Amino acid sequence: MKRPEPVIQVKRRRDLALSVIVNQVPYIDFLGVSFDRHGDQLTATMAFHDDLIGNPTLPALHGGATAAFLEVTAIIGLAWTSLWDEIEREVLDIEAVQSGDLGLPKTIDFTVDYLRPGLPRDAYARARVNRSGRRYASVHVEAWQDNRERLFAQASGHFLMPQRDV
Amino acid sequence: MKQKEIDAARQFIEAIPHSQRLGMKVEQLGEGRAVISMPYDKALIGDPVTKVIHGGAVSALMDTAGGAAVVVHPLAGPGTATLDLRIDYMRPATPGQTITATAECYHVTRTVAFVRATACDVDTARPVATATGAFTVSKGLA
After folding, report:
1. Does the pLDDT value for residue A128 go beyond 70?
2. CB < 8 Å to B59, chain A
3. Choosing among A29, A55, A156, which should be mutated to test the B contact, i.e. which has the most B CBs within 10 A?
4. pLDDT at A165
5. Pick from A63, A106, A107: CB nearest B85
6. Cys staple from B120: which of A51, A129, B45, B124, with CB 3.0 to 4.6 Å?
7. Is residue A121 within 8 Å of residue A146, measured between CB atoms?
8. At B13, is the secondary structure helix, strand, or coil?
9. Is A10 helix (H, G, I), strand (E, B) or coil?
10. For residue B142, what pLDDT is reported?
């Protein structure tokens, strides 16, 4: 029987793949979004800063910032899910991801439900890929702040998968 | 709607921190209609190869324009929040070009304002994205 891969090596491989997927997109850094990984599950965090405010009198997060956060989470979640097998089989071409040559899913449509005002503090989100075909994918995203059960926004959208000549 | 109220709304919209950060400018405002522009910025790139702006930034522009159209509608109050927003992306915006969103608040009830919006770059014949949304109407002000 083959010996299991050392845990440090597994983590290094997965974390490298994730950071390369995320770092190719300047807008993710602009928004202040980062991703935590537990196994194959990603949780996105949008660290609060004053530039995310849409209503200074409440104050509350800008609906556009919330929408963008959910869309970023959906795209990275979808890219991550679709590349997971290659990451695990150690066949992912990291350089092709780095240069952006592999491409990211493109949004076809995206619908955001605003459930309660976004508070001026960190926000978290997770994406669930409900269907992922060769061309199209459907993704649902949930976002919360202090309490995982009290969502402040959710979204679902359709995406065009990058076409790869494999 | 009085010009004074529209000017106040313009000041309010131009002071929104997130919209300011994205470089948005109010181009036109009045009677349930808002035109807002967002210049190209490399920090907003979503696709590193094509240099196309991320859809999220276009969503923020649509949301700002939608909310702006609501607050200048004669039957809606001065405050609003987005209830839902759906965006359809028709084509990538051309890198380097300003994106301009035109939003129209086409129906207002006592509680809800309905909005549609279109975003274009220089080629105004082919929209980059369209949006429809529902926004809250501030109570007791209509």
Report:
1. yes
2. 64, 67-68, 71, 110, 112
3. A55
4. 63
5. A63
6. B124
7. yes
8. helix
9. helix
10. 43
* Cβ neighbours, 10 Å, residue B91: 12
**Region label for A103, one of left (φ > 0), alpha (ψ between -120 and 50) or beta (otherwise):** left
Two tokens, residue B99:
């994106």
Q: Are B72 and B36 spatial neighbours (Cβ–Cβ below 8 Å)?
A: no
Residues B52, B77: Cα–Cα separation, whole Å: 36
Contact assessment for residue A65 and residue A73, using Cβ atoms and an 8 Å cutoff: no
Kindly tell me the burial class for residue B5, based on how many C-beta atoms sit within 10 Å of its own C-beta (0-12, 13-18, 19 or more).
middle
pLDDT, position A78: 97
Residues 12-41 of B with CB under 8 A from A: 15-22
Q: Is the pLDDT of residue B140 over 60?
A: no
Mean pLDDT, chain A, rounded, equals 94
Per CB-CB distance under 8 Å, the chain A contacts of B18 are 51-54, 61-62, 64-65
> With an 8 Å Cβ cutoff, is B91 touching chain A?
no
User: Which pLDDT tens digit goes with each residue over B66-125?
Assistant: 999 999 999 998 889 999 999 999 999 999 999 999 999 999 999 999 999 999 999 999
Q: What is the ipTM of this complex?
A: 0.94
The Cα of B21 is separated from the nearest Cα of chain A by a number of Å equal to 6
| Paired tokens of A145 | 């702040």
Q: CB of B62 within 8 Å of any CB in chain A?
A: yes
